[in-house]
Specification:
Largest sheet: 5 strands, mixed
Number of helices: 2
Strand order of the largest sheet: 2-1-8-4-6
Oligomer: single chain
Helix content: 10-25%
Shape: globular
CATH architecture: Roll
CATH superfamily: Beta-grasp domain
Number of strands: 9
Radius of gyration: 13 Å
Order of helices and strands: EEEHEEHEEEE
Amino acid sequence: MPKLTVEGVGEFEVPEGKRLVLALTDEAGVDQLHACGGNSRCTTCRVEFISGEPDRMTAAEKQTLQARDLTDARLSCQILCDHDMSVRAISRLEGSGRADAGHVPTEEMQPQPVEWVEK
C-alpha cells in the first residue's frame, strides 16, 4: 500500500489506486475542499507536493490548471495514489467561508482520463 504523508497531519497507508482527494478526506481526515465533486472543473482540491509528485497528469487537470494560470499546485481529484507521496493540503474547508467541502467525489476519476500528457 502506498504511503501518504500530509504535512502537519501525519502519515497514512492508502489503498492502491485511490484518488488522492478521497485519501486526504477518508484516510487522513483532512477537510480538503472539492467544490465540483472531483471533476476537474474547479481548483478547490489543490495540493502542493513536498515529494513524490507524479510526473504525468490528466489532460483535464492540465487544462484546468492552465486556464487558471496555476503552476505550483496539483488537483488532488486527478491523482491516483499509486506510490508514496508527501503533500501540503492548501485548500481546506476551515477558513474558506464555505458551508461544506463540496459534493463527495466518486471512487473513479472524473472525467475519465482518456489522454495523459506530460506535466
